[in-house]
Structures are given as C-alpha cells and as structure tokens.
Amino acid sequence: MKFPLYLDNHSTTPMDPRVLETMLPYFVEKFGNAASRNHAFGWEAEEAVEQARKQIARLIHADPKEIVFTSGATESDNLAIKGVMEMYREKGDHMITCLTEHRAVLDTAKALEAKKGLKVTYLPVDKTGMVNPEDVRNAITEKTILISIMLANNEIGTINPIKEIGKIAKEKGILFHCDATQGVGKIPVDVQDLGIDLMAFTAHKMYGPKGVGALYVRKKAPRVRLAPIIDGGGHERGMRSGTLPVPLIVGFGKACELSEQEMPTESVRLAALRDRLQAGILKSLDEVYLNGHPTQRLPHNLNLSFAYVEGESLLMGVKEIALSSGSACTSATLEPSYVLRALGVGSDLAHSSIRFGLGRFNSEEEIDYTIKRIIQIVNKLREMSPLYEMAKEGIDLKTVQWAAH
Ligand SMILES: *Cc1c(COP(=O)(O)O)cnc(C)c1O
Known about the structure:
CATH class of the largest domain: Alpha Beta
Number of strands: 13
Helix content: 40-55%
Strand order of the largest sheet: 2-8-7-6-5-3-4
Number of domains: 2
CATH topology of the largest domain: Aspartate Aminotransferase, domain 2
Shape: globular
Radius of gyration: 23 Å
Strand content: 5-15%
Bound molecules: pyridoxal-5'-phosphate
Largest sheet: 7 strands, mixed
C-alpha cells in the first residue's frame, strides 16, 4: 500500500496513466490550433478534437455535434442555465431546481435571482436525498423555461429519477438540464433514454485531466439554443468561444473510452468494495448511520454518520487516509453540509458525517486497512466522549437539563 490512501474520488480522481500517454504528443509535437484551417498543424489538431468528441458523445449516446467543450462542469452548468434563461427570456422567467444541487447550479441560480430578477423554485428532497418527480410537475408554472436536476449527488451518491423528470419536462415542453458530473463514466448515462436536453460533466471526475469539461446540447427535438457567456471567435458553434485545449480534450476523450470499456466490471468491483467497507464498519461499531439512499446510489459512494464523533476529529485521527467530512468540505466555516441538512439529518449527525469516495485505483487491501483504522479512531474518540458514555448508560440526552453557563 502506498500512503496516504486516496478515498476522496468525488472531489477529483487521479488521472489514468493511459490518459496521460494519449495526451503527451499534443503538448509539444502536435501543438496546432484546431481552428487553423490552412495547414497540417491545424488539421491534425482538429482531427484529434473530433476523435475525442466522438468518444465523449458515444459514452452518453449523443451525436458528436451536440458536445460543447468547456473548462469543466462548473462552466457547463453556468452555460446551460444562464444560456437558456437568457435565450428564452421572452417565453418565461422561472426555473426549477433542488436543494441538494452542487454549488455550480445553486450559485448560478442565486445569481440570476439577484441580478436578473428571475424566479427559482428549490425543491426539497426526501430523507434519502431523492427528488420526487411529482414535486417537479407541481412546481411548473406558465413561466417555467428550465428544469435543472442533478443525476447523482456528490456527497451522498443518491441517484435521482431522471427519466421520470425528463418525461415530465418533455410533456410540458420545458428544457431539462442535468448536472451528471458524478454519474458519467461510473453508471450508464443515455441522454436519449433519460430525455435530457442539456447535460454537464467533467474529465477530472472520471480519471481525465483537470480543466476540461463538456456541455451536451440537444440538436434535435428540440434544437436547444443558448446565449453564450463568452464571446469571441465563434468556436463550438458560437456557444463557447476560445481556442480549444487540444491535449486536455484528447485526454477527456480517452478517459471516456476507458470508462465505457471498464464500467461494467469497474462498477461491480467498486460496489463490492464499498459494501465491504460499509459492512466492516457497521459490524464493529454501533450508532453509525447511512446518509443517502440504501440502493439507488453511486456504486463507489458511502456516506456515514458516526454519532458522538466530530467528523473533523475523525479526519485528524486518520491523516494517512484522504477522506471528506460533511462539515468543512463546502466552506471555510464549519457549517454542516447543506445536502445533509436538506435530508433532514440533524446538525449533530451532519457534523459526524464522513464521505468515502472509492475509485479505479483502490484495492481490497486499502479498504480493509480503512475499516480497521476507522473502527480504531471512532472507538478512541467515543471513549473520550461523555455524551457517548451517558447514552450508553441509557440516559436520553434529549431530556437532560443542561446547566446554563
Ligand atoms: C465536481 C462537480 C462539479 C464541478 O466540476 P468542475 O469540473 O470541477 O468545475 C459540478 N457538479 C458536480 C455534481 C460535481 O461533483
């Protein structure tokens, strides 16, 4: 085992060495600008970009012409939401999203509310983190022009009923954007089957390079139009100007190809490792709670709350394992995760949560080591916790009259 162990694959993934190998020639040797139409350097770069576009489109069952390259999923979410809300402004001014979206969606929606006076409905989720399609239907008004619901959540891994939501959007003639960043490359994603009109995803969450992402933009039934955020040379069908980062795009394409090939075995292997991790921890520790959906979740995600243990203290105790807690990950302040809060998880248990994000390069040995260390540190922290002791003695902490300071 090589330390520190990396179990934070929802934040970013290490790049697959096969991806790097594919990228290398495009830095020095094949350095052309894909927009240079007059010479071999340009043609070579363009061909590489178009090859990658095909690999990416194939993974999500799209046409290569429907892929718009961006700098990452944050930009893709911005382009989808701002682009639609501006382009279709004469049709309406209302958008529907949900409380557990990534900040790239929530902050974009908030900016539109504040600066452009647009109206946004933030749907609640159930205690497993799932959006109810009927809530989407009921939130639709005459003025609704966009629905934006994520495929799978980045903290708890819950997978939303996207197909049902896509059906409702289609039925009502409303555009449907999906932030699929955590799902693409990990679980099958078919934009036709799911009825998605716009979809954001990014290379660095699927073993590709950082700094490149894509927005799927439907071309037929309906043909989606977008107001660009960046004006310039009219690249990417005018939707996203700027010289394409050819090496990054080539890497993104390779990452998609590898994911397509390996997904059937990889998702099964990671789900088994994840289940092993969960079972190993739950077998030896009491008062550990699963956050998210028991079955409808990403195969490589596990989010647990360890009652009477501060998530941050737990992380400090296992510094040789890279994990994420539900407290600090979203901000510099120690606010508990807004995702867990939306599920109705109390502040105490939200502060006790740990996200395990497994990935392509994790081994069974690493998982067994993690189980052992988590049990050790949780037991140690609980030994020092008077609250845990009181609870074990059968005292109901909710009824305790604490002395005022
Ligand atoms: C990581 C992530 C993003 C942001 O992606 P970048 O490429 O880092 O900008 C957006 N949405 C979700 C769900 C994510 O997990």
